[in-house]
Amino acid sequence: MGTRPARASLHYATVRHCEEPTGDAAIAKTTFLFDPHIMKFVDEATIRVQAGNGGHGALSFRREKYVERGGPDGGDGGHGGSVYLVADPAMNTLADFRVVRRFRAESGRGGAGRNKTGRSGQDLDVHIPCGTVVHDVDTGELIADLTQTGQRQKVAEGGRAGLGNTRFKSSINRAPRKITRGTPGEGRHLSLELKLIADVGLLGMPNAGKSTLISAMSEAKPRIADYPFTTLHPNLGVVRVGRLQSFVMADIPGLIEGAADGAGLGIRFLKHLQRTRILLHLVDIAPIGESANPAKSVRAIERELAKFSVDLAARPRWLVINKLDLLDSEAFDKAKRQLIDELGWEGMHFEVSAATGQGTAALAQAVMAELLAQNENE
Ligand SMILES: Nc1nc2c(ncn2[C@@H]2O[C@H](COP(=O)(O)OP(=O)(O)OP(=O)(O)O)[C@@H](O)[C@H]2O)c(=O)[nH]1
Ligand SMILES: [Mg+2]
Q: Which of 203, 207, 353 to mutate to test the pocket of ligand 1 (most atoms within 8 A of CB)?
């Protein structure tokens, strides 16, 4: 019998971040990702999947009263069960695969006399979170990228059934002793990599206010604190714009200079921004410490981003100047001008206070409009 993975919905919030198969891909339904106190966020795992073997064909001859030398009646074996991966919106981490790593579908049973066909092995569905990219570890081949709710992909083919001796009866051989054996089920070593599905990603130094912003704009409630690396795992939130429109925002741990070489929490969480269509680069306009310089911190993040992925570095990126409430308007304007001049920033920029919510509605509307415009251009 195959083992089913423990379903990850007991203790932490249910999240829906799959793209719906028929709906607008830009609009996913999400609550917050999970409760970090209960469950560790895991976004990489390797598993072994083994399909069931085909059952052997039977070698048998009829034995009935009054029938001498009955003909062959060996039935075929059953097919081996295959292993499928299924994208499940109720799962939000690969943590289950730290515990159960082997998945085996049922084998087919052997055939029997009286032309009885062996029972086929049941297919096994292994549930994985939406957004999981699957590779074959041995060949490196990309097997699947499961982004849609319920999307199902065969990853190991069940063995074929063997044939019973009935099949080999012919005019020249009325009592065949030949059968074929079932073939072995396919076995594979798979790597699973979860890349969250969000429309917009938040990027910035620790303490820039990313988690404060996602809490202000969505119902996500990540931990917020005035020390760096408060966020240790990504969070998702749905930002509602008006009554019918919404988009998904991803908050990831802060980046620092040298992150690509492992400083701080490194850059591995950037993979969760790879499916986004706009990056919001948050910068604290009034950082503490004399050496803190907003323009330098923006540049540092840009460098780390480019080291991670040229493609991600080229994604539309808007500057979101945060902590507007900390300065009076004159000081703010001056600091903002200096930042924009120093960066030579020509792209979009917004001014917000994640703490008071000022400017966040305008930001949400601009993001929504951009996402809709991108949809139309596709
Ligand atoms: N005054 C003011 N404080 C803010 C604002 N936004 C965030 N903060 C404060 O800045 C600190 C850091 O905020 P977080 O939201 O935890 O920052 P983060 O970017 O998520 O930081 P990491 O998770 O460490 O990367 C907290 O003390 C927040 O209360 C703002 O608009 N105004
Ligand atoms: Mg944070």
A: 207
pTM above threshold 0.90: no
Query: Which ligand 1 atom minimizes the distance to the CA of 254?
Result: 25
Q: Which of 224, 226, 269 to mutate to test the pocket of ligand 1 (most atoms within 8 A of CB)?
A: 224
| Helical H segments across the chain, by residue range | 96-99, 210-217, 294-308, 310-313, 329-343, 360-377
Residues 255 and 124 in one domain: no
Q: Indicate the helix (H) or strand (E) that contains 279.
A: strand 278-284
- Secondary structure percentages of the chain, helix, strand, coil, to 5: 20, 25, 55
Provide the β-strand partners of residue 146: 132
Whether residue 6 is contained in a domain is answered as no
Contact residues of ligand 1, CB 6 A cut-off: 204, 206-212, 224-226, 228-231, 253-254, 322-323, 325-326, 353-355
Estimate the crossing angle of helix 210-217 against helix 360-377, to 10 degrees.
80
Under 8 Å between Cβ of 312 and 305: yes
Tens digits of residue pLDDT in 132-186: 999 999 999 999 999 999 999 999 999 999 999 999 999 899 889 999 999 999 9
> Can you tell me the distance from the alpha carbon of 325 to that of 79, in angstroms, rounded to the nearest whole number?
67
Out of 174, 194, 214, a domain closes at: 194
Q: Which two tokens stand for residue 64?
A: 């009935």
Please tell me the total count of domains within the chain: 2
Residue with the larger pLDDT of the pair 345 and 7:
345
- 225 C-alpha to center of ligand 1: Å? 6
Please give the distance, rounded to the nearest whole angstrom, from the Cα atom of residue 46 to the centre of ligand 2. 28
Q: Parallel, antiparallel, or unpaired for β 83-88 and 152-156?
A: antiparallel
Q: Which ligand is nearest to the CA of 217?
A: 1
